[in-house]
C-alpha cells in the first residue's frame, strides 16, 4: 500500500484514535514492575481510574481486552449452574450471553429488537416472578456498541430495588466509560466492566472490573474456576501499588496520561462534548433523510450513531467506498445488522472539526456510492455546532 497523506479518520466506535499526548506518554522505557518506581505509578492509576467510574470501591485492571473483563466479572461472583438474567440489546449483549453459557451458567435472555435499551419493567417482572430467588445476577450492557443505544442503568437499579430481589447487578460500559454518563456507586452497580480503547482513548489491551462490597462478598462464595482473573491476589498486590503478574506497564503510562487529560478538560465537560457531537450527528443523519437505529429519544448513545440504510442498500459497500475514497473507517453492522447499518463513532479525542470532517466523508460517500439521500446533513450539523458550545 502506498503512502496516504493526512491522518486516517478512525471513526469506528472504538478503538478510538489515540492522541499524541498518550502515544508520547507510552513511548518510555518499560520499568521493573516489582521496583519502587512502579508502585508510584500503580497507586496513581488505581486511584485515578476510580474517579472515572465514580466509585470509592476498588477497580481491578487486567492486561486483557474487554472480553477478559466480562469473563472476570462472572467467574469471580458466580458458581456453575447459577441463573443469570441478561437483556438482548444487541450483538455485545449476545456475545456476553454466549460467554456466560460457555462458563456453565444458566442464562435467561430477555428478548429485544436491537433498537431499544434494556427494559427496566421486563427485568422487574422477571425478578418478581423468581420467588425462590434462583437468579443470582442481572447483567446489562450500558452502551450497546452494535446499535448506538444506551440502557437506563439508574432505572434498572430502581426496578431491581423495587422487587427487593438480592441478585447482583453487573453492567458492561466498555464503550461508555469516560464518554457517556456513568456512576458506579450512585447507581448501585456491583460489577462494572470496561476497557481501554474507547472513551479512555488508549490502545486496546487493558480492561477493568469496578467492584462493590456486595460483589466482594459474593466472591467469597463463588466456585467457578478462576486463576488469572481472580480478584483476590489482584487486590492484595494492588494494596501496595503492584500486580500479581506482569502488568501492561506502558499502557499504564498511557492510562495515567489519559486520566490527566480527561481531568484537565473536566469529566463533566467531556460528557457534555460527547452529547453535543452525538446531537449534531443525528441532525446530519435526519437531514440526509436516513434513519437513526435507536428508537427511544432517551436512549441515544453519546458515543456512536448507528444509521439504518433504506432496504436494498448495502452498508458494507458504502463503507468500502468511504474507506477507498476518503480514508475513513466507519463501524460495520454486526450480527443480524450486517450490511443493513453503518456506525459513526464520535468518541474520545475529537472536536467540532473532526466531527465535521467525518460527516463530510459520510455525505460525500453517500453520493459516490449512489445511496438515495438528501444533501445538507453537514450543513445541519454545522448550524447546530456553531449555535452551541463555547
Ligand atoms: N462490550 C462492548 C459494549 C463492546 O463494545 C466490546 C468491544 O467493542 C466488547 C464488549 C468486547 O470487548 P473487546 O473487544 O475489547 O474484548
Topology:
Layout (H helix, E strand, L loop, with lengths): L8 E3 L8 H7 L9 H18 L5 E4 L3 H12 L5 E5 L3 H12 L3 E5 L9 H10 L5 E7 L1 E2 L4 E2 L2 H11 L4 E5 L18 E5 L11 E4 L2 H9 L9 H8 L10 H17 L1 H21 L3 E2 L11 E5 L6 H12 L1 E5 L8 E5 L6 H17 L8 H11 L3
Parallel strand pairs: 1-13, 3-4, 3-5, 5-8, 8-9
Antiparallel strand pairs: 2-10, 6-7, 9-10, 11-12, 12-14, 13-14
Bound molecules: pyridoxal-5'-phosphate.
Pyridoxal-5'-phosphate binds next to helix 3.
Description:
Residues 31-309 form the Aminotransferase class V domain. Its cofactor is pyridoxal 5'-phosphate. Keywords: Aminotransferase, Pyridoxal phosphate, Transferase. Pfam families: Aminotran_5. The chain has 390 residues and is an alpha/beta fold. 42% of the residues lie in helices and 15% in strands. The chain is built from 13 helices and 14 strands. The strands form three sheets. The protein has a seven-stranded mixed beta sheet, sandwiched between helices. A hairpin with an 8-residue loop joins β13 and β14. Bound molecules: pyridoxal-5'-phosphate. Pyridoxal-5'-phosphate binds next to α3. Pyridoxal-5'-phosphate binds at residues 14, 65-67, 92, 141, 145, 172, 174-175, 195, 204.
Helix run count = 13
The spatial strand order of the largest sheet comes to 2-10-9-8-5-3-4
Structural class, please? alpha/beta
CATH superfamily of the largest domain: Type I PLP-dependent aspartate aminotransferase-like (Major domain)
Radius of gyration (CA) equals: 21 Å
Helical content stands at: 40-55%
| Total strands | 14
| Percentage of residues in DSSP E strands | 15-25%
Q: Please state the average pLDDT score.
A: 98
Order of helices and strands: EHHEHEHEHEEEHEEEHHHHEEHEEHH
Alpha-carbon distance between the termini? 41 Å
Bound molecules: pyridoxal-5'-phosphate
CATH T-level topology of the largest domain = Aspartate Aminotransferase, domain 2
Cofactor: pyridoxal 5'-phosphate
Domain Aminotransferase class V: 31-309
Keywords: Aminotransferase, Pyridoxal phosphate, Transferase
GO molecular function, one term: transaminase activity
Amino acid at each position: 500500500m502506498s503512502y496516504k497523506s493526512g491522518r486516517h479518520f478512525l471513526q469506528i466506535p472504538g478503538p478510538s484514535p489515540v492522541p499524541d499526548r498518550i502515544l508520547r506518554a507510552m513511548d518510555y522505557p518499560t520499568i521493573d514492575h516489582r521496583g519502587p518506581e512502579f508502585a508510584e505509578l500503580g497507586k496513581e492509576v488505581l486511584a485515578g481510574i476510580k474517579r472515572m467510574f465514580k466509585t470509592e470501591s476498588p477497580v481491578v485492571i487486567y492486561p486483557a481486552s474487554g472480553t477478559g473483563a466480562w469473563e472476570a466479572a462472572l467467574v469471580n461472583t458466580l458458581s456453575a449452574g447459577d441463573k443469570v438474567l441478561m437483556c438482548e440489546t444487541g450483538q455485545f449483549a449476545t456475545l456476553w450471553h454466549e460467554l456466560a453459557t460457555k462458563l456453565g451458567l444458566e442464562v435467561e435472555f430477555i428478548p429485544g429488537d436491537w433498537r431499544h435499551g434494556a427494559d427496566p419493567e421486563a427485568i422487574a417482572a422477571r425478578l418478581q416472578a423468581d420467588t425462590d430467588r434462583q437468579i443470582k445476577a442481572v447483567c446489562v450492557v450500558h452502551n450497546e456498541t452494535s446499535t448506538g443505544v444506551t440502557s437506563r442503568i439508574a432505572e434498572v437499579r430502581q426496578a431491581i430495588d423495587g422487587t427487593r430481589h438480592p441478585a447482583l447487578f453487573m453492567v458492561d460500559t466498555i464503550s461508555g466509560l469516560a464518554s457517556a454518563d456513568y456512576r458506579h456507586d450512585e447507581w448501585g452497580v456491583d460489577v462494572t466492566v470496561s476497557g481501554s480503547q474507547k472513551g479512555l482513548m488508549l490502545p486496546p489491551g487493558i480492561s477493568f472490573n469496578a467492584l462493590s462490597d456486595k460483589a466482594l462478598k459474593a466472591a467469597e462464595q463463588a466456585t467457578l474456576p478462576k486463576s488469572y482473573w481472580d480478584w483476590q491476589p489482584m487486590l492484595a498486590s494492588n494494596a501496595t501499588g503492584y500486580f500479581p503478574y506482569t502488568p501492561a506497564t506502558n499502557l499504564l503510562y498511557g492510562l495515567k496520561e489519559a486520566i490527566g487529560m480527561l481531568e484537565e478538560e473536566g469529566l463533566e465537560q467531556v460528557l457534555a462534548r460527547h452529547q453535543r457531537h452525538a446531537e449534531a450527528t443525528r441532525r446530519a443523519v435526519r437531514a440526509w433523510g436516513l434513519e437513526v437505529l435507536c428508537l427511544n429519544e432517551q436512549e441515544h448513545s453519546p458515543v456512536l450513531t448507528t444509521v439504518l440504510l433504506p432496504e436494498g442498500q448495502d452498508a458494507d459497500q458504502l463503507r468500502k467506498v468511504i474507506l477507498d475514497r476518503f480514508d475513513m473507517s466507519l463501524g460495520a453492522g454486526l450480527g443480524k445488522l450486517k450490511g443493513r447499518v453503518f456506525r459513526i463513532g464520535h468518541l474520545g479525542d475529537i472536536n467540532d472539526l473532526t466531527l465535521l470532517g467525518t460527516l463530510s466523508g459520510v455525505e460525500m460517500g453517500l453520493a459516490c456510492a449512489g445511496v438515495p439521500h438528501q444533501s445538507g446533513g453537514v450543513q445541519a450539523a454545522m448550524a447546530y455546532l456553531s449555535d452551541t458550545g463555547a
